[in-house]
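Let us begin with a simple case.
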Amino acid sequence: MMIFPKKTRIFQAKESLADFIFEEIPKIKNGSILVITSKIVALSQGRIVEKKMNRKEKEEWIEKESDNFYKTKWCYLTLKEDHWCANAGIDESNVESGGLILWPDNIYEEAEKLRKKLLKEYGIKNLGVLVTDSRIFPLRSGVTGVALGYAGFQGLRNYIGKKDIFGRKLKMTKTNIADSLASAAILVMGEGNEKIPLAVIEDAPVRFTDKKINKKELLIKPENDIYRRLYENL
């Protein structure tokens, strides 16, 4: 598997994301996965608050954008569309006019709509689209990549019922393909001023599909979450 990060010009709010991608990546290999940071998806949708604000105003936006929230020493721990994340995914960095970039709307639908445009433009058969963000994990320092939405490939590989190297059947193991690809891509795309909002993954071990992705493919029920005791009183 190879990952090719793409340094670009600065993406402008409400600009066409498809046109931007065609401009920056005029050709793409069949069977590739196009990685897109969630921030430029949000910018393309106009999901920005163009106003410098004080801490209280920012916290009001965080609470408004959250499905549930818990204030910690450093930030808000929030539940946003079945993701636990900091501050409802709201970002203050890389906003030219100040203010906030909010979480994108309808991420899976946006990924599928964009995939169809790209397939037609590039004239290829198989293409994945992966929208990424960054996450922290319990008891771990630093962020890694996470898939907020994707289209064109299966995000989960199920090993349940298959045998290990000694012939024992696996009972629980599944591989989260989408988040794994997001983490690998974010590593080379960066988190600061790299100006790399796009990347292309070639020869990834994925199964491509034209079927609409089930948004709940990667989700588990709260009662089955091993971390549940950390947030069950929210």
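The second case is a distinct protein. As before, the sequence precedes its structure tokens.
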Amino acid sequence: MLVLTRRPGESLLIGEEIEVKIIESAPDRVKLGITAPNDVRVLRKELQQTIDENRQAAAPAPNLKNLLHDL
């Protein structure tokens, strides 16, 4: 993991097309501005985890007949 120190108004680049700018900082949070191409998906990590959990919960249950056959 790369760890950087930035101040409000400063930014960093990821590749050539993604810029992350520090908009504001406070003792318990940082406000970021992200500029990326439209085809790059940008999500909060906790939102992606929720999406993954919902997909797993919505997956069809295993076929009982197949489960019995495997026994």
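The chain has a mean pLDDT of 89. The longest strand covers residues 18-26.
Keep these points in mind for the review questions at the end of the chapter.
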